[in-house]
Amino acid sequence: MPHTRRHVLRLGAATLVAASVPALELPALAAAVVTADLVIYGATSAGIAAAVTARRLGRTALIVEPGTHVGGLSTGGLGMTDSGVKTAIGGLAGEFYRRVYAKYNGTAVTPTSPARFTFEPHVATAVCDDLLAEAGVPVYLNNRLTGVTKAGNRITEMTCDNGQVYRAAMYVDATYEGDLMAAAGVAWTAGREANSVYGESINGVQLRSGHQFDRFVDPYVTPGSPASGLLPGISAGPVAPTGSGDARIQAYNFRMCLTQAANRIPFARPGGYDAIRYEPLARLVQAGYTGPFFTTHAVGGGKTDSNNNGPFSTDFIGANYGYPTASYAARAAMVEEHRVYQQGLMWFLANDPRLPVSVRSATASWGLAPDEFAGNGGWPTQLYIREARRMVSGYVMTEADCRGSRVPADSVGLASYTMDSHHCQRVVVSGALKNEGDVQIGVPQPYPISYRAIVPYESQCANLLVPVCLSASHIAYGSIRMEPVFMILAQSAATAAHLAITAGSAVQQVPVATLQSRLRADGQLLTWPLTTPGEIIVDSSTSPGVTRAGVWLKSTAATGYWGPDYEHDDNTGKGVNRLRFTPAIPAAGAYQVYLRWTSHANRASNVPVDVCANGTVTTRTVDQRSGGGQWVSLGTFTLPAGSSPAGASVLIRTEATNGYVVADAARFVPA
User: Which residues does the UniProt record annotate as the domain Golvesin/Xly CBD-like (predicted)?
Assistant: First the structure.
């Protein structure tokens, strides 16, 4: 009997969300044992990507989800995608964001259609529903893993708390916590490694300036009296030396979807509210701090993806150390504690009389969007698990990979986001309150992720892939841990599982060349830089044909640049500073000309750029506050052969510009 899309069928304590695709033979709902080629644990965006990939490859696949939320953070409020270099996102992940664009614009989805990386939660949910329905993927909800049975080094079945058993040839752990991986006996770690473990420089304890208390805040219950004890949430011990390892993990929070619409849901005082939790913030404001208190990044529909911002914000620092290994009941209690903390913070900011009226009224102008998470009072149903367990396998992704000083040959996808850790603890330094653990260091360009980082040691498990809790150090995971990358790695994991089933082999024995060939055929991007046949790239640092006037400074502070670095005019020498890219054109003809820069709020929005083509000069104006980390087209021009600036060049000028002007690279592609 066919099942209608998103038709919900009860399985005792479980729920099955089925999809209507006649080609899929759904398992019997009353069966104690459910089988498929691939069983995926975790209905995150990665879990959906793995299941859809398997179905498109002709395999049966199902998802087992311990809770009720489908889509992970992508549908849970993280509507401003941490995407890094967007052009490095290929395959099914790229399709996901093209589908988001199509939802908003009513257009078709094609391999070259536009993508959109900001969206409301309900739009991402609709995209996930479509993917699951079209592929015919059953999703079993409220199935919490209780045990794994193995025969030698292979999982034969996994059992859930309602008695349901799932059997498959291959398994994928797509949870944020790594529960299936741990139950299968795979090696893992949690917390921060010391820098000495992998030869890193920004792992472990880091007392830095980001999101930091920039003025004195007394940490004691009675100001000036250590004997009165520390305020809640502050570590009592001394700060360990920089780079020391420990078991702490970066803070969690909820990504709120807020609105200023008239029908917004006001911030309510939660049960369990305790004003002393927010005493450090009250003292900070009394010391002259005026914000920010949280972000309000627009995602569409007059709504936001609101995140932690500032020294005391939505991150519940120090409240999650036990989460990675806690029971499901204990985790639920921690999630509830995070909800009470964050809802209490918003109520405090909107109502506490110790705060200036300006702060209270500005906060109260926002509220929860009533048409998002409607079954949960507008509050997100997914806690942002930024980090939990991390597998330890034959290849551990480290800072060296992120910085490009080590490049694995067995790439199964690209990452490009900043090495990003939120704070891990609040501490006392010289009698003052400080935050510790925040690191935000850019990467020079997209970098490959090793296949060995998503498969365990073969001796530990031969039929499991781990695309979310992959093998990485704390600081490298801070760059990799983004939703697009999880989807990329999940597609690669499911493809590898398909090949292993076909060959009857362990996942560790899948030929990398065969896997990469299939991934490329399905749109996955595996190496950087991306190149087009016949293209010519003139880089500011590595290419001939670059001439300068005035003074240009090299930098790597902002991400998304081409080559080893980029240059800027230091916001000085306006009209004097100029930089020209002149290519060596092999054959006359029509070429599309592109320019690349890195974006930041301090950039100029009115940069004049002259394209010289066959003696004719065409001037474009580019806004370098946006569009960074990608090739921006300046148009198509007829260029003569040779390397003459008048015949073919791009000149960046600085006169009358209203900020820093960046020169990174120019690109010429045969049209």
Answer: 536-669
